[in-house]
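Ig-like domain-containing protein
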Amino acid sequence: MPLRRRKALQLSGLGITILSGCTFGFGGTSDEIDVTMTNNDGTTHRLSVTISFENSVLVDETVTLAADESSTTTFENPRYTGSALLEAELDTAERTQTEIRVGPGTGIRDVFVEIRADGELTAFAGRT
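Predicted structure tokens:
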């Protein structure tokens, strides 16, 4: 088999594999998204987290976290792409809100809400 033909067949096989959904070990967008809430502060806190998308609530969770404790919940990734609103509120009235991209093709894998050592809240989405 001539070298050019062999190379063309290899490349066409690669294209078919990619188009069929194989990502060679690279992560894609998850069907279920983990939401991890972590307390890095030295005291126990009550933390409320809400994630809403369009006219539905994906997460509505309130947890009490001791120092250096974490809690995880999950939500089903929506079937279409858009911006979801993540709102977090701490028992000290500290609040944060941010938009996160959800749905197919966004690469979202996890959401993290953290109480920092200084008592401030941070929230962000982890992507692949």
